[in-house]
Write a structure and sequence with these properties.
By secondary structure, the protein is of the alpha+beta class. It has helices at 27-54, 81-84, 176-179; strands spanning 8-9, 12-13, 56-60, 75-79, 93-97, 112-119, 124-128, 131-134, 137-138, 155-157, 162-166, 182-183, 187-196, 202-203. The strands form 3 sheets. Strands 3, 4, 5, 6, 11, 12, 13 and 14 form an 8-stranded antiparallel β-sheet that branches. It has a 4-stranded antiparallel β-sheet with strand order 9-8-7-10, with no helix packed on it.
Length: 204
């Protein structure tokens, strides 16, 4: 009796089973996913930049000049379009570039300030005691503020595109009484929302 080799059956020789090809790496799907995620990140950064530049921006409150409305450590959101396309009224809280003459705290200079609008172009302002007069009429401050007034306003007439700013913490605010009116071109936007702390979140 002849021996049969492992691959010999009934006199028929069978060939070795084919070796399966090595698994291919799905490089194209990975590359496509990488490109898509890169595009998403770039678009997100661009949108964030455009929003911050032209629409909304957050600011940190470093001082108590706007107390009790804004406390030290508050974070607010400013609407830039409200200034670019809207109107600025008495009572609005705005953020603006610090005037060149602003030197109330020379040890810690700031680039931006937040105050309340007290006078708009064409207004004449003065004060007597703790009362502010706008065009000869006592200003009704319907927002939270502190008295006494502190430094008086004197007699100020606002020219075109000039705005008079004051802090709600009247006696402890470095504002237009010290460094004069602010031009509209220096106003960054209107503060409309406090987002921090969470316990005080809300519209302004």
């Amino acid at each position: 009796m002849s021996e049969v080799t492992p691959h010999e059956t009934s006199g028929v020789l069978t060939s070795e089973p084919p070796t399966p090809p090595p698994p291919t790496t799905p490089t194209k799907p990975r590359r496509r996913a990488l490109i898509e995620w890169t595009a998403i990140i770039v678009v997100a950064v661009l949108v964030s930049f455009l929003m911050r530049t032209f629409t909304f921006q957050t600011f940190f409150i470093p001082s108590g000049s706007m107390e009790p409305t804004l406390q030290i450590g508050d974070r607010i959101i400013v609407n830039k379009l409200a200034v670019s396309w809207g109107t600025i009224n008495i009572g609005d809280i705005v953020v603006f570039k610090a005037p060149p003459a602003e030197n109330c705290d020379s040890a810690d200079p700031v680039t931006d300030l937040v105050k309340r609008v007290i006078g708009i172009p064409g207004d004449t302002l003065t004060s007597k005691g703790n009362t502010i007069y706008v065009n000869g009429v006592a200003l009704k401050e319907k927002w939270p503020h502190t008295e006494p007034l502190g430094q008086p306003i004197g007699h100020v007439h606002l020219m075109a595109d000039q705005y008079f700013m004051m802090g709600d913490n009247h006696a402890d605010s470095c504002d237009s009484r010290m460094w004069g009116p602010v031009p509209r071109s220096d106003i960054i936007g209107k503060a409309f929302l406090r987002i921090w702390p969470l316990s005080r979140i809300g519209f302004l």
